Amino acid sequence: MTKQQTKHIDMLEPKAPTKKCFVIAPFGEENTPKRKNFEQLLEYVIEPVAKPLGFQVLHSLDIYQPGNITNQILKHLLEDDLVIADLTGHNPNVFYELAVRHCYKKPVIHIIEHDQIIPFHVASDRTIYINRSDWESVFNSRKCLEQQILSTEKSPEAIDNPIFRGIDFPSPKNPSMETSQSEVVAYLQDLSLSIKDIQSQLKQKNVEVTFVSPDRSGLAGLRHPSEKPTSKMQEALDRNMQSLLDSLATDFRSTVSPST
């Protein structure tokens, strides 16, 4: 390692974290070679690069709060600024979590041991090869990791992965930018008031109208202005108004809040 390379590493000092980097990797049981490899990857490659760039480095072993661990991992996969995936060993959990991240078209970086084959579906994606027994390889992998992180931050619109290459559909909404439940309720309340205001204005003009039923089977009820409304017609109007609002609420929630 040259003096210039050593100086470059020394200049990378941790900053106060403003972003989150979630690491998905095979970590194994305590005191096993797999756990040691995972810890070395964190200590010698990921943390020395990510922390100086303002990232808090997290992984599933860091999750201590009560609750469903799978849901908590999914939350990190969907919301964190960056995911680093260690594909070494072809761990099925890692590839499941990687696919979830790919569905949201958010930054992810692949790492794998130098002598392993990358599975077909992600083989065309840029991957950092690392030889944990070679310090020069460790240093080079750190340089590559830094370059890829900076590249994703500079051009987030250029993010690409096998799912979005194979299927033409828009990126799901970012959960961190989603409309809150209180905003949804407020929206529906405003919508309800607007509909009632329209009804009131129509009644003042001696016009009665109901809405198309949610299943679009036809109008709930129409009557001539000179015809007096019956209790059954009014009940039909009320039922269809409520059904319409319920349908709008369901549709609205499904568009602003992806399942987690």
- Percentage of residues in strands: 5-15%
Q: Main β-sheet: number of strands, strand sense, barrel status?
A: 5 strands, parallel
Query: What is the succession of H and E elements?
Result: HEHEHEHEEHHHH
- Widest β-sheet, arrangement of strands: 2-1-3-4-5
Low-confidence stretches: 1-11, 175-179, 209-225, 256-260
Q: Helical residue percent?
A: 40-55%
The CA-CA distance between the termini, in Å, is: 46 Å
Count all strands and give the number: 5
Instruction: Report the structural category.
Output: alpha/beta
Number of helices: 8
Report the radius of gyration as a whole number of Å: 27 Å
Shape: elongated
Mean pLDDT: 75
Give an overview in words.
It is built from eight helices and five strands; from the N terminus they run H-E-H-E-H-E-H-E-E-H-H-H-H. Helix content is 48%, strand content 10%. The chain starts with a helix and ends with a helix. The protein has a five-stranded parallel beta sheet with strand order 2-1-3-4-5, with helices on both faces. Helix 3 (69-79) crosses helix 4 and helix 7 (181-204) packs antiparallel against helix 8 (231-256). The chain has helices at 3-11, 33-50, 69-79, 92-103, 135-154, 162-166, 181-204, 231-256; strands spanning 19-24, 55-59, 82-86, 108-113, 127-130. Residues 1-11, 175-179, 209-225 and 256-260 have low confidence and may be disordered.
